[in-house]
Design goal:
By secondary structure, the chain is α+β, with helices and mostly antiparallel strands. 33% of the residues lie in helices and 27% in strands. It has 7 helices and 10 strands. The protein has helices spanning 3-15, 25-32, 34-48, 84-89, 91-99, 191-203, 208-217, and strands spanning 53-54, 71-78, 104-112, 117-121, 128-137, 143-147, 150-152, 159-162, 168-172, 178-186. Helix 1 (3-15) crosses helix 6 (191-203). It is globular and about 50 Å long.
Amino acid sequence: MGMLEKMLEKKNQQVRRPYGYETPQCVKEFHENIDAIIEEWKNYVASSSSNGTPIDELSSAQGYLNEDKKWKAFFVHIYGETPVKATKYFPVTARLADKWKDEVKLVFFSNLEPGKHIQPHKGNNHGVIRSQIGIDIGQPETTGVRVEDKTFHIKNKEYFTFDDTFEHEAWNRGSGDRTVLIIDSCKNFSYFYSIINKYLLSKMKDTEYVQSTLEKLKKTN
Protein backbone atom coordinates (compact mmCIF):
# COMPACT_ATOMS: atom_id res chain seq x y z
CA MET A 1 0.00 0.00 0.00
CA GLY A 2 1.40 3.38 -1.05
CA MET A 3 1.55 6.58 0.97
CA LEU A 4 -1.62 8.06 -0.54
CA GLU A 5 -3.57 4.87 0.13
CA LYS A 6 -2.40 4.84 3.74
CA MET A 7 -3.36 8.49 4.23
CA LEU A 8 -6.83 7.91 2.82
CA GLU A 9 -7.35 4.71 4.78
CA LYS A 10 -6.54 6.51 8.04
CA LYS A 11 -8.96 9.33 7.18
CA ASN A 12 -11.66 6.89 6.14
CA GLN A 13 -11.49 5.06 9.46
CA GLN A 14 -12.36 8.35 11.17
CA VAL A 15 -15.48 9.05 9.10
CA ARG A 16 -16.88 5.73 7.87
CA ARG A 17 -20.22 4.45 9.14
CA PRO A 18 -22.62 1.87 7.70
CA TYR A 19 -25.49 4.25 6.85
CA GLY A 20 -26.92 7.67 7.68
CA TYR A 21 -25.22 9.52 4.83
CA GLU A 22 -26.63 12.59 3.15
CA THR A 23 -27.94 11.64 -0.27
CA PRO A 24 -25.34 12.53 -2.92
CA GLN A 25 -26.45 15.23 -5.34
CA CYS A 26 -25.87 12.92 -8.29
CA VAL A 27 -28.27 10.37 -6.81
CA LYS A 28 -30.87 13.08 -6.33
CA GLU A 29 -30.71 13.87 -10.04
CA PHE A 30 -31.10 10.21 -10.98
CA HIS A 31 -34.12 10.17 -8.69
CA GLU A 32 -35.57 13.26 -10.36
CA ASN A 33 -35.57 11.25 -13.59
CA ILE A 34 -36.80 8.03 -12.03
CA ASP A 35 -39.99 7.74 -14.12
CA ALA A 36 -37.95 7.78 -17.33
CA ILE A 37 -35.43 5.32 -15.89
CA ILE A 38 -38.17 2.91 -14.81
CA GLU A 39 -39.68 3.13 -18.29
CA GLU A 40 -36.28 2.33 -19.81
CA TRP A 41 -35.99 -0.78 -17.65
CA LYS A 42 -39.48 -1.96 -18.56
CA ASN A 43 -38.79 -1.44 -22.27
CA TYR A 44 -35.48 -3.31 -22.00
CA VAL A 45 -37.12 -6.31 -20.31
CA ALA A 46 -39.96 -6.35 -22.84
CA SER A 47 -37.81 -5.94 -25.95
CA SER A 48 -34.96 -8.24 -24.93
CA SER A 49 -36.93 -10.81 -22.89
CA SER A 50 -34.13 -10.48 -20.34
CA ASN A 51 -33.67 -9.23 -16.81
CA GLY A 52 -29.91 -8.93 -17.19
CA THR A 53 -26.91 -11.24 -17.10
CA PRO A 54 -25.90 -13.36 -14.10
CA ILE A 55 -23.55 -11.01 -12.31
CA ASP A 56 -20.85 -13.63 -11.81
CA GLU A 57 -20.54 -13.88 -15.61
CA LEU A 58 -19.59 -10.21 -15.66
CA SER A 59 -17.65 -9.99 -12.41
CA SER A 60 -15.97 -13.23 -11.37
CA ALA A 61 -15.49 -11.88 -7.84
CA GLN A 62 -19.23 -12.31 -7.30
CA GLY A 63 -19.16 -16.02 -8.12
CA TYR A 64 -19.53 -17.26 -4.57
CA LEU A 65 -22.57 -15.02 -4.11
CA ASN A 66 -24.39 -16.21 -7.21
CA GLU A 67 -24.05 -19.95 -7.57
CA ASP A 68 -27.78 -20.19 -8.28
CA LYS A 69 -27.58 -17.56 -11.08
CA LYS A 70 -30.56 -15.68 -9.65
CA TRP A 71 -28.75 -12.35 -9.30
CA LYS A 72 -28.77 -10.57 -12.66
CA ALA A 73 -27.27 -7.24 -13.67
CA PHE A 74 -27.15 -4.74 -16.51
CA PHE A 75 -24.21 -2.34 -16.30
CA VAL A 76 -24.81 1.16 -17.63
CA HIS A 77 -21.58 2.81 -16.51
CA ILE A 78 -18.32 1.51 -15.09
CA TYR A 79 -15.41 3.82 -14.26
CA GLY A 80 -15.98 6.28 -17.08
CA GLU A 81 -17.06 3.73 -19.69
CA THR A 82 -20.58 3.29 -21.01
CA PRO A 83 -21.17 0.09 -23.00
CA VAL A 84 -22.78 0.55 -26.42
CA LYS A 85 -25.80 -1.54 -25.46
CA ALA A 86 -26.38 0.69 -22.45
CA THR A 87 -26.78 3.77 -24.64
CA LYS A 88 -29.21 1.81 -26.81
CA TYR A 89 -31.51 0.61 -24.05
CA PHE A 90 -30.92 3.25 -21.37
CA PRO A 91 -30.23 6.63 -22.98
CA VAL A 92 -31.50 8.71 -20.06
CA THR A 93 -29.66 6.65 -17.44
CA ALA A 94 -26.47 6.68 -19.52
CA ARG A 95 -26.68 10.43 -20.08
CA LEU A 96 -26.96 11.07 -16.35
CA ALA A 97 -24.03 8.74 -15.64
CA ASP A 98 -21.92 10.61 -18.19
CA LYS A 99 -22.95 13.99 -16.78
CA TRP A 100 -21.82 12.90 -13.30
CA LYS A 101 -18.83 10.81 -14.40
CA ASP A 102 -16.47 12.72 -12.09
CA GLU A 103 -18.54 11.58 -9.12
CA VAL A 104 -20.22 8.38 -10.30
CA LYS A 105 -18.05 5.28 -10.69
CA LEU A 106 -20.59 2.54 -11.19
CA VAL A 107 -24.22 2.43 -12.34
CA PHE A 108 -26.08 -0.81 -12.88
CA PHE A 109 -29.50 -2.39 -12.62
CA SER A 110 -29.49 -5.19 -10.05
CA ASN A 111 -32.21 -7.83 -10.32
CA LEU A 112 -32.92 -10.49 -7.72
CA GLU A 113 -35.20 -13.26 -8.89
CA PRO A 114 -37.67 -14.92 -6.46
CA GLY A 115 -35.92 -17.00 -3.84
CA LYS A 116 -32.58 -15.23 -4.20
CA HIS A 117 -30.54 -14.56 -1.07
CA ILE A 118 -27.23 -12.74 -1.39
CA GLN A 119 -25.30 -14.00 1.61
CA PRO A 120 -23.67 -11.60 4.11
CA HIS A 121 -20.54 -10.07 2.61
CA LYS A 122 -18.45 -6.90 2.51
CA GLY A 123 -17.34 -4.74 -0.39
CA ASN A 124 -13.72 -3.67 -0.64
CA ASN A 125 -13.86 -0.19 -2.24
CA HIS A 126 -13.59 2.31 0.59
CA GLY A 127 -13.58 5.26 -1.78
CA VAL A 128 -17.26 5.09 -2.69
CA ILE A 129 -20.66 4.91 -1.07
CA ARG A 130 -23.51 2.94 -2.58
CA SER A 131 -27.06 4.09 -3.26
CA GLN A 132 -30.05 1.99 -4.30
CA ILE A 133 -33.20 3.29 -5.98
CA GLY A 134 -36.27 1.06 -6.29
CA ILE A 135 -37.11 0.30 -9.94
CA ASP A 136 -39.41 -2.72 -9.91
CA ILE A 137 -40.26 -4.04 -6.45
CA GLY A 138 -43.75 -5.49 -6.49
CA GLN A 139 -43.64 -6.91 -2.96
CA PRO A 140 -41.33 -4.69 -0.88
CA GLU A 141 -42.36 -6.33 2.37
CA THR A 142 -40.86 -9.64 1.17
CA THR A 143 -37.56 -8.15 0.00
CA GLY A 144 -34.86 -6.30 1.83
CA VAL A 145 -31.26 -5.31 2.41
CA ARG A 146 -29.59 -5.57 5.80
CA VAL A 147 -26.63 -3.31 6.50
CA GLU A 148 -25.03 -4.19 9.84
CA ASP A 149 -27.91 -3.84 12.35
CA LYS A 150 -30.50 -2.15 10.12
CA THR A 151 -32.83 -3.61 7.48
CA PHE A 152 -34.19 -1.53 4.60
CA HIS A 153 -37.38 -2.48 2.74
CA ILE A 154 -37.37 0.06 -0.07
CA LYS A 155 -40.27 0.52 -2.45
CA ASN A 156 -40.39 1.69 -6.05
CA LYS A 157 -38.84 5.17 -6.41
CA GLU A 158 -37.48 5.13 -2.85
CA TYR A 159 -33.74 5.26 -2.20
CA PHE A 160 -31.13 4.89 0.50
CA THR A 161 -27.36 5.23 0.75
CA PHE A 162 -24.92 3.04 2.66
CA ASP A 163 -21.28 1.99 2.88
CA ASP A 164 -21.08 -1.48 1.39
CA THR A 165 -17.70 -2.19 3.01
CA PHE A 166 -19.76 -2.99 6.11
CA GLU A 167 -21.44 -6.38 6.27
CA HIS A 168 -24.65 -6.49 4.26
CA GLU A 169 -26.98 -8.99 2.62
CA ALA A 170 -30.05 -8.88 0.39
CA TRP A 171 -32.97 -11.19 -0.32
CA ASN A 172 -36.14 -11.65 -2.33
CA ARG A 173 -38.71 -13.90 -0.70
CA GLY A 174 -41.54 -12.72 -2.93
CA SER A 175 -43.02 -14.17 -6.12
CA GLY A 176 -41.76 -11.44 -8.45
CA ASP A 177 -38.40 -9.90 -9.28
CA ARG A 178 -36.75 -7.20 -7.17
CA THR A 179 -34.98 -4.65 -9.35
CA VAL A 180 -33.03 -1.63 -8.12
CA LEU A 181 -30.65 0.86 -9.69
CA ILE A 182 -27.30 0.82 -7.91
CA ILE A 183 -25.06 3.88 -8.01
CA ASP A 184 -21.56 3.97 -6.54
CA SER A 185 -20.37 7.55 -6.06
CA CYS A 186 -17.29 9.13 -4.52
CA LYS A 187 -17.32 9.22 -0.76
CA ASN A 188 -17.52 12.75 0.59
CA PHE A 189 -14.21 13.59 2.27
CA SER A 190 -12.78 17.01 3.03
CA TYR A 191 -11.28 18.81 0.01
CA PHE A 192 -7.71 17.49 0.28
CA TYR A 193 -8.75 13.89 0.83
CA SER A 194 -11.40 14.07 -1.88
CA ILE A 195 -8.65 14.91 -4.38
CA ILE A 196 -6.64 11.90 -3.23
CA ASN A 197 -9.70 9.67 -3.35
CA LYS A 198 -10.69 10.70 -6.87
CA TYR A 199 -7.13 10.21 -8.07
CA LEU A 200 -6.98 6.69 -6.63
CA LEU A 201 -10.41 5.83 -8.04
CA SER A 202 -9.32 7.03 -11.49
CA LYS A 203 -6.53 4.44 -11.46
CA MET A 204 -9.02 1.62 -10.96
CA LYS A 205 -10.21 1.80 -14.57
CA ASP A 206 -6.89 0.32 -15.70
CA THR A 207 -6.99 -2.61 -13.30
CA GLU A 208 -7.43 -6.13 -14.64
CA TYR A 209 -10.64 -6.46 -12.62
CA VAL A 210 -12.37 -3.51 -14.33
CA GLN A 211 -10.92 -4.18 -17.78
CA SER A 212 -12.04 -7.81 -17.74
CA THR A 213 -15.56 -6.75 -16.82
CA LEU A 214 -15.61 -4.21 -19.66
CA GLU A 215 -14.52 -6.90 -22.11
CA LYS A 216 -17.26 -9.23 -20.94
CA LEU A 217 -19.84 -6.46 -21.23
CA LYS A 218 -19.09 -6.14 -24.95
CA LYS A 219 -20.33 -9.71 -25.41
CA THR A 220 -23.35 -9.72 -23.10
CA ASN A 221 -26.50 -7.84 -22.04
